[in-house]
TrEMBL record:
Its cofactor is pyridoxal 5'-phosphate. May also have succinyldiaminopimelate aminotransferase activity, thus carrying out the corresponding step in lysine biosynthesis. GO terms for biological process: L-arginine biosynthetic process; lysine biosynthetic process. PANTHER family: ACETYLORNITHINE_SUCCINYLDIAMINOPIMELATE AMINOTRANSFERASE, AMINOTRANSFERASE CLASS III. Belongs to the class-III pyridoxal-phosphate-dependent aminotransferase family. ArgD subfamily. The lineage of its organism: Bacteria, Pseudomonadati, Pseudomonadota, Gammaproteobacteria, Orbales. The gene is argD. PROSITE patterns: AA_TRANSFER_CLASS_3 (PS00600). It is found in: Cytoplasm. This is Acetylornithine aminotransferase. Its main location: cytoplasm. GO terms for cellular component: cytoplasm. It comes from Orbus hercynius. Keywords: Amino-acid biosynthesis, Aminotransferase, Arginine biosynthesis, Cytoplasm, Lysine biosynthesis, Pyridoxal phosphate, Transferase. Pyridoxal 5'-phosphate binds at residues 109-110, 142, 227-230, 285. GO terms for molecular function: identical protein binding; N2-acetyl-L-ornithine:2-oxoglutarate 5-aminotransferase activity; pyridoxal phosphate binding.
Length: 407
């Protein structure tokens, strides 16, 4: 090997080699087990970030490792020129457990949402009118980073600066039914929303809002799309969050925890809506490949079990009790947001805009957390994290809060 090939891997290499669209922490994780991660120096961290709600079963869960190993010795990829057994098995599980009749597999949440939005417009054009193309979305929403999905998302900071955006997209306030009534009409093809806004501060939809939007969509023959990329797969205490509201979407997207760390996503819909599609209208090279779907089956079967789903809200309450102990001492939080283990802690006014500071200081005390916007701390740990790990991680986090409070 050359001297260059033998050079040690350092964090400084990131700044030299990777497109500068991220600002990662200064340590490099090299190993994970359950809810613990170790860096290059052997230092151990408690993981409350979960890969941004991806590692729903922690790191290297034995069920997922077994599925990956077994499938890796059988079949990795054949493209969608051919089908494969794991894809059909995972599709059947999703259909059996939801409202859906049809599934489309892709690789990321953005791709699932791209497929959902294209389907919604195509359905409206084919069934009603070529002018029925309006998409209604909400401020502070996030639906991905493709140009279409980032334009539909309600955060201009992510979509500005790339030239003309896709047309016929309207953004209105979340949880404001009157705002929906003011803009929905016969030219609306779909309303897209997150039952819990993940990147937008962990605001949960109210039951009245979701029921009202459903009724308006029915009235104007518009499709209702639920983006459950972050809120789905057990994250909020049920397999999908819509099941807590009794409001059924026409299209649902899933990703992140669907593969437990392996890239996979899915768009779910009904037979009636999917009937407008035919070969060649949409597609993907890697979507539904057997390796991803085999891991997805293992993740699905493990998460969609009474012992996992039934424990999530109890773990949430433990997190909040621990956060409240910190809050009683340092007065840093005003409220707790989200559902289940999609948990947000909104910072007090004196700390507004400083969520990223909490994240950075927390890593120095060997605990990994997230932010959701500039003023909300986000906790999306493994759904099977132990009570002991929650308490230990919170002890470390308390030290970080103490340091920030003293500065």
């Amino acid at each position: 090997m050359t001297q260059k090939e033998q050079s040690p891997i350092t964090r400084a290499m990131f700044d030299q080699l990777i497109l500068p669209v991220y600002a990662p922490a200064q340590f490099i994780p090299v190993k994970g087990q359950g809810s613990r991660v170790w860096d290059q120096n052997g230092d151990e961290y408690i993981d409350f970030a979960g890969g941004i709600a991806v590692n729903a079963l922690g790191h290297c869960h034995p069920n997922l490792v077994k599925a990956l190993h077994e499938q890796s010795e059988k079949l990795w990829h054949v493209s969608n020129v051919f089908t494969n057994e794991p894809a059909l098995q995972l599709a059947q599980r999703l259909i059996d457990s939801t409202f859906a009749d049809r599934v489309f597999f892709a690789n990321s949440g953005a791709e699932a949402n791209e497929a959902a939005l294209k389907l919604a417009r195509h359905y409206a054009i084919e069934k009603f009118s070529p002018y029925k193309t309006k998409l209604i979305s909400f401020y502070h929403s996030f639906h991905g980073r493709t140009f279409f999905t980032v334009s539909v998302g309600g955060q201009a900071k992510y979509s500005d600066g790339f030239g003309p955006k896709p047309a016929d997209i309207i953004h209105i306030p979340f949880n404001d039914l009157d705002a929906v009534k003011a803009v929905i009409d016969d030219q609306t093809c779909a309303v897209i929303l997150e039952p819990v806004q993940g990147e937008g501060g962990l605001t949960s939809a109210t039951p009245e809002f979701l029921n009202g939007v459903r009724e308006l969509c029915d009235q104007f023959h518009a499709l209702l799309i639920f983006d459950e990329v972050q809120s789905g797969m057990g994250r909020t205490g049920t397999l999908f969050t819509y099941q807590q509201y009794g409001v059924t979407p026409d299209i649902l997207t899933s990703a992140k925890a669907l593969g437990g760390g392996f890239p996979i996503s899915a768009m779910l819909t009904t037979e009636a809506i999917s009937s407008v599609m035919h070969p060649g209208v949409h597609g993907t090279t890697y979507g539904g490949n057997p390796l991803a779907c085999a891991v997805g089956i293992a993740a699905f079967d493990t998460i969609n079990s009474p012992q996992v789903l039934a424990s999530i809200n109890a773990k949430r309450e433990l997190f909040i009790r621990e956060l409240e102990q910190i809050n009683q001492q340092f007065n840093v939080f005003t409220q707790y947001k989200g559902k289940g283990l999609l948990l947000g802690a909104e910072l007090a006014p004196q700390y507004h805009g400083k969520a990223r500071d909490f994240l950075n200081v927390a890593t120095s005390f060997k605990v990994m957390i997230l932010n959701a916007g500039a003023s909300v701390l986000r906790f999306t740990p493994s759904l099977v994290i132990t009570d002991e790990e929650i308490k230990e991680g919170m002890q470390r986090f308390a030290k970080a809060v103490a340091q920030i409070s003293a500065s």
